[in-house]
Amino acid sequence: MSEEKPAEEPILEDARIDALEARLKAAREREDERNRSKQKGADANYRSGNRVLADLIGGILGGFVIGWAFDALVGTSPWGLLVGLFLGIGVAFRNIITAANTQSKTPDDDPQ
Fold first, then answer.
1. Which helix (DSSP H) or strand (DSSP E) does residue 99 occupy?
2. Among 42, 52, 54, 63, which residue carries the largest CB count within 10 Å?
3. Which stretches does DSSP call E strand in 7-110?
4. pLDDT category, 34, cuts 50, 70, 90?
5. Burial of 33 per CB tally in 10 Å (0-12, 13-18, 19+)
């Protein structure tokens, strides 16, 4: 291997390339700002959907566990489980209907 320098020197960065990179960076920042959501956190529809899901799952599981525990203590299998399950479903639907009928407060509705 020879220790001679290569015949061609590496090409140095051109000022046009630097300007192009700066413009690309600015364009990416503007695009990210434009695509970023205007609202921080989850919106009201997402929160209400999560609440409905939690009420439904919680009511069913709560009724199931309470009915199962009642059956285990009293020995009325499967009636306590079925009654607890139906009561849990009823409570879940009542909570969902109550949440759907309450008016959510939005920043537009706030009189100042």
1. helix 79-101
2. 63
3. none
4. confident
5. exposed
**Residues 47, 41: Cα–Cα separation, whole Å:** 10
Cβ–Cβ < 8 Å for 67, 84? yes
C-alpha closest to that of 91 among 63, 53, 49: 63
Name the pTM for this structure: 0.55
Give CA–CA dist 95/56, Å, rounded: 9
* Residue-by-residue DSSP string for 27-38: HHHHHHHHHS-S
**Residue 18: what pLDDT?**
85
Cis preceding linkage at 10, omega within 30: no
Q: Which two tokens stand for residue 75?
A: 């020995």
Measure the CA–CA gap between 42 and 60, rounded to whole angstroms.
26
Q: What is the pLDDT of residue 76?
A: 87
Residue 108 pLDDT greater than 60, yes or no: no
